[in-house]
Amino acid sequence: MGGERRDRRVVRSRRLLQDALMALVLERGYAAVTVQAVLDRADVGRATFYAHFTGKEALLLSIFEELRESIHRELAGITPATVARFGEGVGLLQPLFAHAAQHRRLYRALLGSRDGAALLHSLHEMLAAPLREHLEAAIAHHRRPLTAQVDLVVTAYVSAVLGVLVWWLEADLPYTPQEMDRVIERLMSLGMGRALGLHSDMGAPAPGWEGEEAPVDRTRDHNRELRRAARAPGPHGVDR
Amino acid sequence: MGGERRDRRVVRSRRLLQDALMALVLERGYAAVTVQAVLDRADVGRATFYAHFTGKEALLLSIFEELRESIHRELAGITPATVARFGEGVGLLQPLFAHAAQHRRLYRALLGSRDGAALLHSLHEMLAAPLREHLEAAIAHHRRPLTAQVDLVVTAYVSAVLGVLVWWLEADLPYTPQEMDRVIERLMSLGMGRALGLHSDMGAPAPGWEGEEAPVDRTRDHNRELRRAARAPGPHGVDR
DNA sequence: TGAATACCGAACGACCTGTTCAGTATCGCC
DNA sequence: GGCGATACTGAACAGGTCGTTCGGTATTCA
Prior knowledge:
Number of domains of chain A: 2
Oligomer: homodimer
Distance between the termini of chain A: 47 Å
Strand content of chain A: under 5%
């Protein structure tokens, strides 16, 4: 968005820096790459770098911005309506895993070690936002106002997906993207439907867990208890 | 293990440094803490620091080693046998969430931002190892040799748990540890049992997803295809 | 008490960061 | 084609961190 950058020198410098970072990340891993090294590799002046990016991470994210568009393009074919029906083989995740497979060297370098935190967080939001959005719509349609649990369920789902994605990359893609999509859907859909009170087709239409009282009250009490406990710790203390 | 450190000066220095790091992490976050700051806060010589730890992260992990023992102690009451029966309210996760609640300030500081990568990884293994171990035993008992999928399921489960744990901490503990345990169990158990072919009490005893052929063969072919595609990228290339 | 050893403190070189500035090259556009 | 605008260069800057070294001092163990 806002993509009109006319001056060739600008695009050239940016691309040189991005390519240099990519190469160095693949060679040494993100954490081990220094701005200085990027400068040397790209053969770009120090001042120029800081004229374009605020630092190493900004450069990384600028690269990922292109990947984001790429993912978005691939995901465009999937309408929000499709997300709802978990019980059927939707293939929501297939594009994600396919994209990761295509760019697997970069994904591995960025997600594998601890450097991936920023990227993982970005991916998390990228998946969580539309999912949450649609789940809330679906719930409203079924007239079940359980918004708090939606966050929890979405978090669990996206965390599981990304965890499995990393595992899958490090295991050298033992299954196809299609298979990954199916096994994850198979793993998660039942429980998600149950937790959200959807899936009326299922045997158990969600009894329990917030059962007898409103969770808010018990929650507040619980927090107070914990805070009290934390303020007056034992002999050797907790949370020191 | 190997715990005999007799010289008081040693334990004093280590504790001073650990406490200083803890305090600074709570104040500024792990990434913003510098070795120099720890030295100043602990009032310990630079040389002394490097006599004990190889760097900032080693110091952090030495702190977490104590938490690890603490978690291990709490988890000790839960026999591996208990882990199997997902369908019942086991409470496997309750100690984890309780421990996180007790130490929530530290957990939040360490897990919240991107600094937590090392710690999350450590926690991941801590949870995954016994779970994997027991699931394999359970599967062997049911005579289903599906070892490859165990890794995937364990990864998904642990990732979901840790993701939700972070969410729960940042949402300021909206539920009790017991509730968290129950909702996660409710969310995950059905699908896990289904994916592993356990849960014979369920309606669907796991048909599908690895259906018609052995997954290994299709897998190998798939990998070869992907590798070929990656070596001969399009005009502007993928995974550049 | 005496020998072992952990600590101090100061200094070291090496590295990285982010900013500045005058001079030069390249660009977009009329 | 040419001109004004703009991006880049290159070098230097101060400020910071890191990990190591060393002789001298203090504490501890036995």
